Amino acid sequence: DSRRDSLFSDTMRLSSALLCLFLLTAEVTRSTGSSKCIARNFGYDSVVCECNSTYCDSLSSVTLPPLGRYSSYVSSMVGSRLEAGQGQVQVNGTATLRLTLVPYQKYQKIRGFGGAMTDAAAINILSLSAGAQDQLLRQYFSPEGIGYTVVRVPMASCDFSTHLYTYADTPGDYDLDTFTLAPEDFHMKIPLLQRAQALSSRPLSLLASAWSAPAWLKTNGALIGKGSLKGQPGGKEHKTWARYYIRFLEAYAKYNLTFWAVTTGNEPSAGRMTNYSFQALGFTPEEQRDWVALDLGPALHASSYPHTHILILDDNRLLLPYWAKVVLNDVHAGRWIHGVAVHWYMDSFVPAEISLGVTHHLYPEYYLFGTEACTGWSPLDRGVKLGSWQRAEQYAHDIIEDLNHYVVGWTDWNLALDHTGGPNWVKNFVDSPVIVDAQRDVFYKQPTFYSVAHFSKFLLEGSQRVGVSSSQKTELEHCAFIRPDGSVVLIILNRSSSEIQFEVWDPSVGYIPSTAPAHSLLTLAWNRQ
Ligand SMILES: *[C@@H]1O[C@H](CO)[C@@H](O)[C@H](O)[C@H]1NC(C)=O
Ligand SMILES: *[C@@H]1O[C@H](CO)[C@@H](O)[C@H](O)[C@H]1NC(C)=O
Ligand SMILES: *[C@@H]1O[C@H](CO)[C@@H](O)[C@H](O)[C@H]1NC(C)=O
Ligand SMILES: *[C@@H]1O[C@H](CO)[C@@H](O)[C@H](O)[C@H]1NC(C)=O
Ligand SMILES: *[C@@H]1O[C@H](CO)[C@@H](O)[C@H](O)[C@H]1NC(C)=O
């Protein structure tokens, strides 16, 4: 296979030439405190950054320059990774394409960004040496990392587990006397969540989702396949399933891990599909409505955790606004509910305006929150691709579209996977922003890692989306926020293959001349006072 080898070495030569060029140009603009990407090319359209037990590239913590100057951070297909620069805000504008900040148009406030501590993620993180584990957790959660504050925690097993289990697998145990967390919680997820919390300068917002109820509570007597809770909402199976949630919250609280929110269950539509291949629990929107109204809502309210938010749906936006209408129109259910959780699969087939937009306008008092996204899930584009910029663009496109349609946070799927995209007991292998190579004791930060970082590192909790007006039609995708300290963050995605010149006008500060390189993601930030 020497042709492939020579192609590979050509690519490597080209990429190291690009890397040199990148390092030369980066030298000029890089601010102090940051460290550079050790780039590796695996034959896709861009590179990964390699980290080990003693080294990982980082932007460090971000401080904005004084009024009259701006900061910029660029990542691009040719190899920039959060490359920092600064410039002077201009008095006059000259570009034909102008993006004008419209601060009096105010929209939703950001809750946060994050990923999921699945069994697979925990197994991969713990497969590294202690030093490399620490580097990895710092990348996500410490102040020099990318500012994750949200962690989704599966309640018991999902497909990203090595085997099937729930916390109460003894048939007929309606009192949940045998309820117990799993070794995966005690030895892996809980210690890692505690370490993540210790590294973070802010309290983490933990979010719990269950994939399946115990088999004996279900119509099909199994964790997988088509099945729902036996009986009716208000009945003993539905009550037991609500109590199981409370037992979970109590069990984690013993380890000082308290949850911001629970969802009504992962992808209820999956459990209504014939022969669905992994853990699922089917609900129709009517059943979900009545279970929340009669069981989950009252149980949570009467528990030691009455302030835990309840998020409905936890499934694709394809089901909106229909699902929200059925559940939220009912005051008995709606009074317990705080938000609507959405997954990103098949977003390209469902315009954001008719799903997220319409739901927000019908139910503005309930927030929208992204709870799951990953690349490499589609049969046409399967598994891990080390260094795919195309996938970074898919992430950034989806985040911008969500944020521009009232979503207040975005949660990635597995925090880390191995090079096969697992482990996953049903071989549903996908990609992750961090791919671990335990043999070499290294991990790779994928382009998608930086894609999320352009948002998560800058959009602190409480940042409020504001309007942006464009002087002409453009291929640039963008969203703008005013942070709690009054500074502005504007994120711009250029998915086209040519460079775009433009300027940003903030009427209270001036003009920021800018260029979005081909296939790039740009974060601009500046003070207004
Ligand atoms: C980690 O990576 C850095 C930068 O490539 C390298 O200098 C160092 O030797 C590596 N450390 C280990 C333990 O491999
Ligand atoms: C900016 O515009 C003003 C008014 O149009 C003009 O007087 C001034 O010379 C311009 N300044 C620069 C630096 O071009
Ligand atoms: C519990 O966690 C909080 C942060 O969420 C921390 O401030 C506190 O010190 C922790 N308490 C114990 C006993 O570890
Ligand atoms: C579901 O699985 C059963 C048993 O394996 C099989 O007989 C049936 O044809 C499957 N149904 C569908 C729709 O695939
Ligand atoms: C985006 O990149 C393309 C390709 O380089 C370029 O033509 C275009 O001008 C860029 N867009 C912006 C706004 O810079």
TrEMBL record:
Pfam families, alphabetized: Glyco_hydro_30 (PF02055), Glyco_hydro_30C (PF17189)
Taxonomy, superkingdom: Eukaryota
GO cellular component terms, A-Z: lysosomal membrane
Compartments where located: Lysosome membrane
Functional pathway: Steroid metabolism; cholesterol metabolism; Lipid metabolism; Sphingolipid metabolism
Primary location: membrane
GO molecular-function terms, A-Z: galactosylceramidase activity; glucosylceramidase activity; glucosyltransferase activity; signaling receptor binding; steryl-beta-glucosidase activity
Keyword Lipid metabolism tagged: yes
Catalytic activity: cholesteryl 3-beta-D-glucoside + H2O = cholesterol + D-glucose; beta-D-glucosyl-(1<->1)-N-octadecanoylsphing-4-enine + cholesterol = cholesteryl 3-beta-D-glucoside + N-octadecanoylsphing-4-enine; beta-D-glucosyl-N-(9Z-octadecenoyl)-sphing-4E-enine + cholesterol = N-(9Z-octadecenoyl)-sphing-4-enine + cholesteryl 3-beta-D-glucoside; beta-D-glucosyl-(1<->1')-N-(15Z-tetracosenoyl)-sphing-4-enine + cholesterol = N-(15Z-tetracosenoyl)-sphing-4-enine + cholesteryl 3-beta-D-glucoside
This enzyme's EC code(s): 3.2.1.45
Topology term for the membrane: Peripheral membrane protein
Alphabetical keyword list: Glycosidase, Hydrolase, Lipid metabolism, Signal, Sphingolipid metabolism
Domain Glycosyl hydrolase family 30 TIM-barrel residue range list: 110-459
Leader sequence residues: 1-33
InterPro entries tied to this protein: GH (IPR017853), GH30_C (IPR033452), Glyco_hydro_30 (IPR001139), Glyco_hydro_30_TIM-barrel (IPR033453)
SUPFAM superfamilies, per database record: (Trans)glycosidases, Glycosyl hydrolase domain
Domain Glycosyl hydrolase family 30 beta sandwich, residue spans: 462-524
BP terms from Gene Ontology: autophagy; cholesterol metabolic process; glucosylceramide catabolic process; lysosome organization; negative regulation of macromolecule metabolic process; protein catabolic process; regulation of macroautophagy; regulation of membrane potential
Family: Belongs to the glycosyl hydrolase 30 family.
PANTHER family the UniProt entry points to: GLUCOSYLCERAMIDASE, LYSOSOMAL ACID GLUCOSYLCERAMIDASE
Protein name from the UniProt record: Glucosylceramidase
Source species: Mola mola (Ocean sunfish)
